Amino acid sequence: MSQITRAPRYVGFWMRVVAGVIDIVILLLIAGLLLYWAYGSSYFTSLLDAQLAALSGAPTAAAAPRPMFVGPADVLINVVLPVLLFLVFWRFGGATPGKMLISAKIVDAKTLGDPAAWQLLVRFLVLAVSAIPLGIVLIWVAFDRRKQGLHDKLARTVVIYAKND
Length: 165
Known about the structure:
57% of the residues lie in helices and 6% in strands. By secondary structure, the chain is mostly helical. The mean pLDDT is 86.
C-alpha cells in the first residue's frame, strides 16, 4: 500500500482536463481500431451519415435511423471496454494513462493511500453520470480547495501529484 508522507499537491482543473483529453484520445484510437476490425469502414460511414442527416434536419424516413449500437461488438468496445480499462488502470496503476503522463495519482482522501475497490467503483459511477449533463459538476474541481469533483467527494478520493511520495 503506497502512502504519501508530505502534504499533497492536488491536481487542478486544467491539468485534469489535459489528462482526460489524453485518455479520450487513447480510448478513441483503441475503439476505432477495434470497431474497424469488427465492422469495417461501413460502421463509420453509417455513423457519419446519421450525424449529417441529424444536423441537416433531413427526414429520417428516407433512411432508417441508425441504432445506438450496431451489434454486440459495438457494446463491448464502446461500453464495457472503457469501464474495464478505467477501473483496471485506477486499481492497479493508481491512474489512467493521461493521469500517469502528468504524474497524477488517485488516492484515498483521508489516508492518502491506495483507495479501496468500492471507492473506485463509486468514483467511476458518479463520474459517468455527472459527465452526462455536459460535465457541469466536473467544473467543481476548479473551485474546490482540494480540487475534488463530485465523483471524488462521494468516493472519498483526491487526485494528487504522484511525485509527492
